[in-house]
Amino acid sequence: xxxxxxxxxxxxxxxxxxxxxxxxxxxxxxxxxxxxxxxxxxxxxxxxxxxxxxxxxxxxxxxxxxxxxxxxxxxxxxxxxxxxxxxxxxxxxxxxxxxxxxxxxxxxxxxxxxxxxxxxxxxxxxxxxxxxxxxxxxxxxxxxxxxxxxxxxxxxxxxxxxxxxxxxxxxxxxxxxxxxxxxxxxxxxxxxxxxxxxxxxxxxxxxxxxxxxxxxxxxxxxxxxxxxxxxxxxxxxxxxxxxxxxxxxxxxxxxxxxxxxxxxxxxxxxxxxxxxxxxxxxxxxxxxxxxxxxxxxxxxxxxxxxxxxxxxxxxxxxxxxxxxxxxxxxxxxxxxxxxxxxxxxxxxxxxxxxxxxxxxxxxxxxxxxxxxxxxxxxxxxxxxxxxxxxxxxxxxxxxxxxxxxxxxxxxxxxxxxxxxxxxxxxxxx
Length: 429
Ligand code: EPZ
What we know:
UDP-n-acetylglucosamine1-carboxyvinyl-transferase, Chain; 2 domains; four-stranded mixed sheet; 24 strands; binds ligand EPZ
């Protein structure tokens, strides 16, 4: 199993290109199931989760062509995928595949909408809480699907097709909103999604669906309206930049000190996180090429932060912020409200000599002057990268084990960081 070795203490200086967003690329690829025409996606990140979803879609009969290098392309450019779901030969998504990645469960929406049937294994994914799918099931039932659970599979049928309805989510859910949105595009009549998630990835998917012929208004607000159409067609769409990758590298720079240009980043996608970083003492400058993050001289100031749905502070940056606060000059408080068990990184961060107390949903972090490198274990995707951030500022060597979690969500992490002066290498085997 690959490991990452880091010798801490170097400032980060240089440019980091920001990749396409994993959490937009995955639902966009799934949306290709809605049409028999080809959907072309540009700027798709080269990640383990994307490769796994390619296998899952392939199992349904989808052809995916990955375009080769073009003149002027750099190695940092995302890939272009041509996805053709002309004939869906199998409406079952098996346990062996779905259990490896939670988002693959979302294929249930286009399958039931277009094929009027689906059999999808209940999902797996990161160990960050119980993560039920009751709200996704509720949304599909509102649209007229009949669902049963048998042998670990959700079996969905809608013999006459889906019918538009009002779906009022009792809590904000990204997965629920993606599923409701995709399913409603081919339902007859009007669907209203209330208390919809406003995350930028929802807006990106809605933009792509609109290019495919869907009639959607209000994406990015808590009320999305969808007028169902009989068919969707092919389109070409560029995946938006990854706001979580952007925030992660911004926190790494705030941690080590230095000056880094995050090329291609879009500040409006993570304003709340940038505000917190500025409060912590980083200098954030927006320019034509993205965002520049610097921290010179003065140390890190403590902050009090609560995670919340967009535009609040994202849960996917909570672990990284906690790593940063381990070296703050004072006491910080971080409250996690989205996932009940997303504190797996706390015990690993303790190995660096950090001081973190957990009380229910809130972590209290007493900043220490120095962290010391240690062997640590990656747990979930974002927790893993928080260990990398701590290691970059720790004295001596850190070995991060089980890094397949990192490969699920961070493209060329060690290359991007070492190009900015970090001492980081992958050790294979
Ligand atoms: C998406 O997960 C992201 N995944 C997560 O990123 C992210 O942390 C999360 O949204 C919140 O922003 C992808 O986009 C692939 P939810 P999702 O449905 O859609 C509860 C990463 O590291 N809930 O918004 O699964 C749920 O338990 C990943 O990239 C129900 O109760 O999250 C949670 O408490 C990790 N019933 C809350 O809602 C349901 O049926 C929000 O979940 C569905 C969700």
